[in-house]
Structures are given as structure tokens and as C-alpha cells.
Amino acid sequence: MKDRITIYLADDHQIVIDGLQLLINNEPDLLIVGTSNNGTKAYEELLDKKPDIALIDWRMPGLNGLQLILNLKNKISTQFIILSMHNDKRYISDAKNNDAFGYLLKNVGKDELLRCIHSVINNKKYFPAEDYVLQEKVRKLTPRELEILKLVINENTTQQIAELLNLSHFTVETHRKNISSKTNTKTVIGLVKYALDNGIEY
Amino acid sequence: MLLEISSEILIYYLAGTLFIFLLITTVIIYIFLHEKKVNLYHRRLQQGEINKKQSVFAALQEGEENERKRLAEELHDGIGAKLSGLKMYLEYLKLKNNTDDDKNIIQKVFGGMDEIINELREISHGLQPALFIEKALAQLVFDYIEQLNSKGYCNYELFCDTPNLKIDLPLKSHCYRILTELLHNIHKHSKATSALIQIIVVEDKLQLIVEDNGIGFNKNQPEAKGTGLLNIHNRVDINKGTLNIDSSSSGTTIIIELPLHTDA
Fold it and tell me: How many Cβ pairs within 8 Å bridge chains A and B?
């Protein structure tokens, strides 16, 4: 009897459960053994049914998805896949760190749903590609600041630079202050040295 | 004798003059001091008025921020989830044997559903991005410009020196709303092809610099004083910061400085 993969569904939106059921029921190797709309009922039924896989919503009344994993991970060998509306990196890494085995966006298609289930049943974690990382442009000069740096090195006064670049005195003065603080220099000689050290042509 | 009398008169005369002089001086000093007191009183009253206005604005902002959060969650996690469920129904129908006509219709509904879900996500994100409280300002702004960059009109870039800077939630909200308002203006009106945002800490101040190479605007013209800019002014004022707009036909630079630690 254990030739089919047993699956439990928990989501507070019945429509989502119905939709998942429609997509999964067609698959000969998958069997849905139960569903619930809240975390508390899901907890009891999961303890009882011990399915291979549980697809659980992140946000549910009663226990939420992550709390459910925390409370059950030492009691049953079910692998948990988190269902979520958010593709944000923070949510995905939170799920990873809380022992989820997979992460599925609710608006995925059937192909991805099945890919995720099969990956998890074969003991391979399944998470969406993390979209991006915030680049740290620490202490780097902006194009405008580089422009002004070059003009300063070429002995232009703030007033001249303001006229050349069609900027106000205040704007150029602010850029100059920031250039000094970013390059950690106090004088024009310091700026020349910084430009030489960093291969900036002026 | 005559001399004595005249010198006596002189003394009286001098004393009288002195007395009148003192009297006038006293009156003048009194009026001056009184004026000063009245002025001070007025100034205090005005300052009180400003403080009151600012605290009302701050409270309104806080309320608005909470409401935005509630709406964003309801849209995204409620309606979004339900639509996703319905999309699964459609996919089920799509996979069944249908006539070509039906297939076409189902495909159209399916595509439309996808569009709606994406638009809903954008609207919800615009109201308040997910994890607004947890995320650092730079990350929130970075997420926002990624979205703008995907629209492809203008290239937005972010420079920051402390990407994980921890600041109070109210200040973070104000900075985020100021920056997104400015970027929205660039997107809508500036015709710029490149824009640069800096979030940097200078001494004990947070500096927000937004530069673009667009067509600029006249800050004294009525349309420039629209609610967007007025809102930015208010937010800067609440935080006792400064705002400088430098706009010409070759671009706009806006420099905002907000103290990181305000003692009330």
C-alpha cells in the first residue's frame, strides 16, 4: 500500500486546498491523505497520519507553518514544504533555517509543484532561486563624485565646478565634503594620492 | 544773591531734566522689555503650534503606515492566495481534453489571472513592502529600484555606506517614503535616463542624496508644490532635518540631511 507518496495539505484558504487537490489527484503516484484549514487541526492529523510530505501554509490560524515544523520535526519523519505568497529572500531563508525541506509559491504551476514534491521525496531540498543580494558599494565614489574629484585635482574652485556642471554651490560643496569623507582625505594632495592609488585618471 | 538764586534754579532745572530723562528712559526700557516679552511669548506660541502640527502629522503618518500594512497583507495574503487557488483550477481544466476553442479561452483566462496576481503583488508592495519592519532601509530602497529598473525607462543605482544601518522605525518609514516619492517623481516627470540614490551617514546625520539627469523642474512653480513635495517637506520638518533642491535643465540633485539622534 505504501507505493504511493502520501501527502497532507494545510492552508487556511479552502480554494488553495481544492486547487492543489485537483492538480495532485490526477497523479497516479500521489495520494492526499488529509487536509485542514488551520494549524491546530493539522498538528493532530499529521501526528496521526504521518504522511511522507506535508504541504503547509506559512500563515494559518492556530499554529503557523514554521511552528508546526518546530513542534513535529522530532515526532514524525514527514518532510515539510512551506506554501507561501512571498518570494522574498528573507522568507525563503527563514523557512530554510526552520527545517523546512521545500518552499513553494502558491501561484506556481503543476509542473513546478510536482518537481518540488519529487525532489523532496528523493531527499533533495527544494527552494526557489534567491533572486538577488544587496551589493555593498561601500565607500565607493559615485560617477558625479569622480567627476568632481577630477575637477578639484585640476585646480577648479567650487564656484567654477558649480558653473561647469550646472549645479548649485551647495550641491558641489556637499559632494566635496562627501568625497573627503569617503576617501578619508583632507587636502587636494590627499585626493591626488587617492586618485593615483586607485588608478583614477585625471 | 542773584547768582545764588540762579544757581539754585539751575540745579532745579538740571534735576528736573535728569528726572524727565530718567522717566523717559524707564518708559523706553519698559516698553522695550515688554515688547521683547510679547515677542518671546508669540514665538513660543508659534513654536508650540509648529510642534503641535508636527506631532499631529507624525501621528497621522503612523496611522497611515499601519493601515497600509493591513491593506497590503489583506490584498496579498488574502485575495492573492484565493486567486492562486483559482489559477490551479484553471490549470486543471487546461490539462483536460478540450476543443481548440475552449483551450484558447482557458489559456486567455489563465494568462489574465497571472497578470492580475502580478498586479496585485505590485499594488500590495506599493502600499507597504513585505518585511517592512524587519528589513534595513537600504534593502527596502534596493527592492524598490529593482522594480523600477525592470520597467526599463531609466537606470537607477543605489550607493550606501552602511547597508545594515539600524534606525528607528518612524525615521526609517519617513526616509523610505521620501525616497520612493522622489524616485516616483523621477520616473513620472523627469525624463531622466539615469538616477542615483545615496544613503550615507555623515557624522551624526543621515544623508539622502537623489540625483538624476532629467529635464529638471522649477521648485517655485505651482505644480512643483504638489502634495508629493509638500509631504517630503513635512517629513523633513518633523525630523528637524534640511532639504536642498538643486534643479536645472540638465538634472536635479536633492540633498536631505536628517539627524540620527534627535533630542526633543
Answer: 118
d(CA B213, CA B248): 9
Question: Which CATH fold topology does B134-259 show?
Answer: Heat Shock Protein 90 (3.30.565)
- Interchain CB contact of A140 with B (< 8 Å): yes
Are A47 and A117 in the same domain?
yes
Same domain for A35 and A109?
yes
The domain that holds A99 is classified in CATH as: 3.40.50.2300
Closest in A23, A134, A136 to B88, CB measured: A23
Interface test with A, best of B159, B194, B256 (most A CBs within 10 A): B159
**Domain count across chain A:** 2
Q: Please indicate, yes or no, whether residues A96 and A161 belong to a single structural domain of this protein.
A: no
Residue of B nearest to A60 (CA): B77
**Which H or E run includes A101?**
none
Task: Answer yes or no: do A22 and B246 touch at CB < 8 A.
Answer: no
Query: Are residues A73 and A21 part of one domain?
Result: yes
Q: Is A196 on the interface with B (CB under 8 A)?
A: no
Q: Do B250 and A182 touch (CB under 8 A)?
A: no
pLDDT in tens, A32-67: 999 999 999 999 999 999 999 999 999 899 999 999
Query: At A172, which CATH number?
Result: 1.10.10.10
* pTM exceeds 0.80: no
Task: Check if A123 contacts B (Cβ < 8 Å).
Answer: no
Do A76 and A14 share a structural domain? yes
Q: Give mean pLDDT in consecutive 10-residue pieces for chain B, a chain of 264 residues.
A: 73 88 93 91 86 83 90 90 92 84 88 90 90 90 89 88 84 94 91 94 92 87 72 90 93 95 58
ipTM at complex level: 0.74
